[in-house]
Design goal:
Elements lengths: L1 H12 L7 H26 L5 H6 L1 H4 L3 H4 L4 H22 L5 H4 L2 H21 L1 H42 L5 H36 L6
Helix pairs in contact: 1-9, 2-8, 2-9, 6-9, 6-10, 8-9, 9-10
Length: 217
Amino acid sequence: MKGIIFSGRINKLMPSDDPGADRKAGLLLLLFLSAVIAGAALGAVSSKYADSGMMKKLDLIFLTNIQLRSSGNALALFTASLASNFLFLLAVFLLGLTLWGEAAVIALPFLKGYGYGLIAGFIYSSCGVNGIIYNILVILPGALVFAAVISAASREAFMNSLKLCRLLRSGDEPEGCASGLQLKRYFISMLWLLFLTVLACTVDMLLSLMLSWLFGF
Protein backbone atom coordinates (compact mmCIF):
# COMPACT_ATOMS: atom_id res chain seq x y z
CA MET A 1 0.00 0.00 0.00
CA LYS A 2 2.80 2.42 0.90
CA GLY A 3 4.50 1.62 -2.40
CA ILE A 4 1.33 2.41 -4.33
CA ILE A 5 0.86 5.73 -2.53
CA PHE A 6 4.53 6.65 -2.92
CA SER A 7 4.51 5.81 -6.63
CA GLY A 8 1.36 7.85 -7.10
CA ARG A 9 2.95 10.91 -5.55
CA ILE A 10 6.04 10.51 -7.70
CA ASN A 11 3.96 10.19 -10.85
CA LYS A 12 2.26 13.50 -10.07
CA LEU A 13 5.64 15.21 -9.79
CA MET A 14 7.14 13.58 -12.86
CA PRO A 15 7.01 15.54 -16.11
CA SER A 16 5.83 13.23 -18.90
CA ASP A 17 4.57 13.40 -22.47
CA ASP A 18 1.14 14.75 -21.51
CA PRO A 19 0.18 18.35 -22.40
CA GLY A 20 1.01 19.47 -18.84
CA ALA A 21 4.61 18.20 -19.03
CA ASP A 22 6.09 21.56 -19.99
CA ARG A 23 4.19 23.25 -17.18
CA LYS A 24 5.55 20.78 -14.63
CA ALA A 25 9.08 21.22 -15.96
CA GLY A 26 8.64 24.98 -15.80
CA LEU A 27 7.47 24.80 -12.20
CA LEU A 28 10.50 22.71 -11.29
CA LEU A 29 12.81 25.23 -12.94
CA LEU A 30 11.09 28.05 -11.05
CA LEU A 31 11.56 26.13 -7.80
CA PHE A 32 15.32 25.87 -8.31
CA LEU A 33 15.62 29.48 -9.44
CA SER A 34 13.80 30.46 -6.25
CA ALA A 35 16.35 28.45 -4.29
CA VAL A 36 19.17 30.48 -5.89
CA ILE A 37 17.41 33.74 -5.02
CA ALA A 38 16.72 32.63 -1.45
CA GLY A 39 20.35 31.60 -1.05
CA ALA A 40 21.54 34.95 -2.40
CA ALA A 41 19.32 36.82 0.05
CA LEU A 42 20.63 34.81 2.99
CA GLY A 43 24.21 35.22 1.78
CA ALA A 44 23.82 38.99 1.55
CA VAL A 45 22.49 39.10 5.12
CA SER A 46 25.28 36.80 6.34
CA SER A 47 28.00 38.89 4.68
CA LYS A 48 28.12 41.28 7.64
CA TYR A 49 29.71 38.47 9.65
CA ALA A 50 32.30 37.71 6.95
CA ASP A 51 35.92 38.86 6.95
CA SER A 52 38.81 38.53 4.51
CA GLY A 53 40.00 35.31 6.17
CA MET A 54 36.61 33.68 5.74
CA MET A 55 36.39 34.80 2.12
CA LYS A 56 39.79 33.25 1.35
CA LYS A 57 38.61 29.91 2.75
CA LEU A 58 35.55 30.01 0.51
CA ASP A 59 37.43 31.08 -2.62
CA LEU A 60 37.54 27.66 -4.32
CA ILE A 61 33.80 27.20 -3.96
CA PHE A 62 32.54 30.73 -4.64
CA LEU A 63 35.46 32.56 -6.35
CA THR A 64 35.63 35.34 -3.76
CA ASN A 65 39.14 36.54 -4.71
CA ILE A 66 38.66 40.13 -5.89
CA GLN A 67 42.41 40.57 -6.39
CA LEU A 68 42.38 37.70 -8.89
CA ARG A 69 39.54 39.34 -10.78
CA SER A 70 41.64 42.53 -11.00
CA SER A 71 44.95 40.84 -11.80
CA GLY A 72 44.55 40.76 -15.57
CA ASN A 73 45.51 37.07 -15.66
CA ALA A 74 42.89 35.71 -18.06
CA LEU A 75 43.86 32.04 -17.80
CA ALA A 76 43.97 32.01 -13.98
CA LEU A 77 40.63 33.82 -13.75
CA PHE A 78 38.91 31.55 -16.26
CA THR A 79 40.31 28.42 -14.60
CA ALA A 80 39.21 29.56 -11.13
CA SER A 81 35.73 30.47 -12.37
CA LEU A 82 35.34 27.17 -14.23
CA ALA A 83 36.57 25.14 -11.25
CA SER A 84 34.12 26.87 -8.91
CA ASN A 85 31.10 26.34 -11.20
CA PHE A 86 32.12 22.88 -12.35
CA LEU A 87 32.16 21.59 -8.76
CA PHE A 88 28.48 22.48 -8.43
CA LEU A 89 27.52 21.09 -11.82
CA LEU A 90 29.34 17.83 -11.12
CA ALA A 91 27.64 17.46 -7.74
CA VAL A 92 24.22 18.04 -9.34
CA PHE A 93 24.99 15.52 -12.08
CA LEU A 94 26.01 12.83 -9.60
CA LEU A 95 22.93 13.41 -7.43
CA GLY A 96 20.77 12.83 -10.51
CA LEU A 97 22.19 9.31 -10.73
CA THR A 98 21.11 8.41 -7.19
CA LEU A 99 17.78 7.41 -5.67
CA TRP A 100 17.96 10.19 -3.07
CA GLY A 101 19.01 12.95 -5.47
CA GLU A 102 15.56 14.54 -5.71
CA ALA A 103 15.61 15.22 -1.97
CA ALA A 104 19.14 16.69 -1.86
CA VAL A 105 19.61 18.48 -5.17
CA ILE A 106 17.76 21.65 -4.12
CA ALA A 107 20.53 22.39 -1.63
CA LEU A 108 23.07 23.04 -4.40
CA PRO A 109 21.39 25.98 -6.20
CA PHE A 110 20.63 27.40 -2.77
CA LEU A 111 24.30 27.10 -1.80
CA LYS A 112 25.46 28.67 -5.05
CA GLY A 113 23.05 31.56 -4.52
CA TYR A 114 24.39 31.91 -0.99
CA GLY A 115 27.88 32.36 -2.43
CA TYR A 116 26.67 35.09 -4.81
CA GLY A 117 24.93 36.92 -1.99
CA LEU A 118 27.91 36.56 0.33
CA ILE A 119 30.43 38.05 -2.08
CA ALA A 120 28.02 40.80 -3.20
CA GLY A 121 27.31 41.81 0.40
CA PHE A 122 30.99 41.66 1.35
CA ILE A 123 32.04 43.91 -1.55
CA TYR A 124 29.24 46.35 -0.76
CA SER A 125 30.17 46.54 2.92
CA SER A 126 33.84 47.04 2.00
CA CYS A 127 33.48 49.45 -0.92
CA GLY A 128 30.07 51.09 -0.60
CA VAL A 129 28.51 52.42 -3.82
CA ASN A 130 31.52 51.32 -5.88
CA GLY A 131 30.89 47.79 -4.63
CA ILE A 132 27.29 47.91 -5.88
CA ILE A 133 28.38 49.09 -9.33
CA TYR A 134 31.13 46.45 -9.41
CA ASN A 135 28.63 43.71 -8.58
CA ILE A 136 26.21 44.85 -11.28
CA LEU A 137 28.79 45.28 -14.04
CA VAL A 138 31.32 42.54 -13.30
CA ILE A 139 29.84 39.75 -11.19
CA LEU A 140 26.10 39.76 -11.93
CA PRO A 141 26.05 38.93 -15.69
CA GLY A 142 28.06 35.70 -15.36
CA ALA A 143 26.26 34.89 -12.12
CA LEU A 144 22.86 35.16 -13.82
CA VAL A 145 23.93 32.83 -16.63
CA PHE A 146 25.18 30.21 -14.21
CA ALA A 147 22.14 30.64 -11.95
CA ALA A 148 20.01 29.59 -14.94
CA VAL A 149 22.43 26.73 -15.70
CA ILE A 150 22.49 25.33 -12.15
CA SER A 151 18.70 25.60 -11.93
CA ALA A 152 18.22 23.76 -15.24
CA ALA A 153 20.79 21.13 -14.22
CA SER A 154 19.05 20.64 -10.88
CA ARG A 155 15.74 20.14 -12.67
CA GLU A 156 17.30 17.50 -14.94
CA ALA A 157 18.87 15.74 -11.95
CA PHE A 158 15.60 15.88 -10.01
CA MET A 159 13.67 14.35 -12.90
CA ASN A 160 16.24 11.63 -13.55
CA SER A 161 16.43 10.68 -9.88
CA LEU A 162 12.65 10.46 -9.66
CA LYS A 163 12.57 8.20 -12.69
CA LEU A 164 15.07 5.88 -11.05
CA CYS A 165 13.01 5.90 -7.86
CA ARG A 166 9.81 5.16 -9.79
CA LEU A 167 11.45 2.17 -11.48
CA LEU A 168 12.52 0.83 -8.10
CA ARG A 169 9.07 1.26 -6.57
CA SER A 170 7.27 -0.28 -9.52
CA GLY A 171 9.18 -3.53 -9.09
CA ASP A 172 9.41 -3.93 -12.88
CA GLU A 173 12.65 -4.72 -14.64
CA PRO A 174 13.57 -1.66 -16.75
CA GLU A 175 13.92 -2.34 -20.46
CA GLY A 176 17.52 -1.95 -21.58
CA CYS A 177 16.65 0.28 -24.51
CA ALA A 178 14.37 2.56 -22.48
CA SER A 179 16.80 2.94 -19.59
CA GLY A 180 19.67 3.51 -22.03
CA LEU A 181 17.77 6.27 -23.81
CA GLN A 182 16.93 7.89 -20.49
CA LEU A 183 20.58 7.97 -19.43
CA LYS A 184 21.65 9.17 -22.88
CA ARG A 185 19.20 12.05 -22.69
CA TYR A 186 20.42 12.92 -19.21
CA PHE A 187 24.08 12.88 -20.28
CA ILE A 188 23.39 15.01 -23.36
CA SER A 189 21.45 17.55 -21.29
CA MET A 190 24.30 17.82 -18.81
CA LEU A 191 26.90 18.17 -21.57
CA TRP A 192 24.88 21.04 -23.04
CA LEU A 193 24.70 22.67 -19.62
CA LEU A 194 28.46 22.19 -19.22
CA PHE A 195 28.90 24.16 -22.45
CA LEU A 196 26.72 26.94 -21.01
CA THR A 197 28.84 26.82 -17.84
CA VAL A 198 31.94 27.48 -19.96
CA LEU A 199 30.05 30.37 -21.54
CA ALA A 200 29.19 31.79 -18.11
CA CYS A 201 32.85 31.53 -17.06
CA THR A 202 33.93 33.26 -20.27
CA VAL A 203 31.53 36.13 -19.62
CA ASP A 204 32.82 36.35 -16.05
CA MET A 205 36.43 36.43 -17.23
CA LEU A 206 35.89 39.01 -19.97
CA LEU A 207 33.95 41.41 -17.77
CA SER A 208 36.56 41.12 -15.02
CA LEU A 209 39.39 41.82 -17.47
CA MET A 210 37.61 44.75 -19.11
CA LEU A 211 36.09 46.47 -16.08
CA SER A 212 37.83 45.49 -12.83
CA TRP A 213 40.69 47.94 -13.37
CA LEU A 214 38.17 50.81 -13.20
CA PHE A 215 37.52 50.12 -9.51
CA GLY A 216 41.10 49.75 -8.22
CA PHE A 217 40.34 46.97 -5.72
